[in-house]
Amino acid sequence: MTSTGVTSKAGIDALRAYLTDHLAGSAGALDLLGSLDGDGDDEFHVAIRWLRDEIAQDRQALVEIMDLLEVDESAVKQAGSRAGEKLFRLWSSATLTRSLPLTRLMRLEALEAGVAGKAAGWRALDALADERLRGFDFTELLARADNQHARLEELRIGAATAAFTA
Fold this sequence. Notes:
Blueprint: H1 9-36, H2 43-68, H3 75-91, H4 94-97, H5 100-128, H6 138-165
């Protein structure tokens, strides 16, 4: 893998690690969103399904970027991310928190942090200015992340209000 500005082995290795970490994070986010989804057609569940679709599309964009940059997925990082998400789900479960709204709040805050990290990743890749990435609209990807963050923030405030006024 060579690219504009990334020619050293250390730089290439760092970019590989960075991209595989972001891909693993997206897998954990999708799993966490799956834990929040349900059969409901209320505003919360509709928003969660929308977020899951959006993040799946963003994950696909990342996979395409990795393909162009000749970066393979890391099975170890994918498994680690999924295991970490499962532990977080257990730690934040309503069984332990004794409150579904508190569980939702904790999980939504984790997702918000993930979306912020994804936005930072898009900015970093945009700054890389690799010619192979010209087909990617990082401005659009950042706008999507901003919309996701805003929607998560609305849901988080609702969950906080429910958790702390119950």
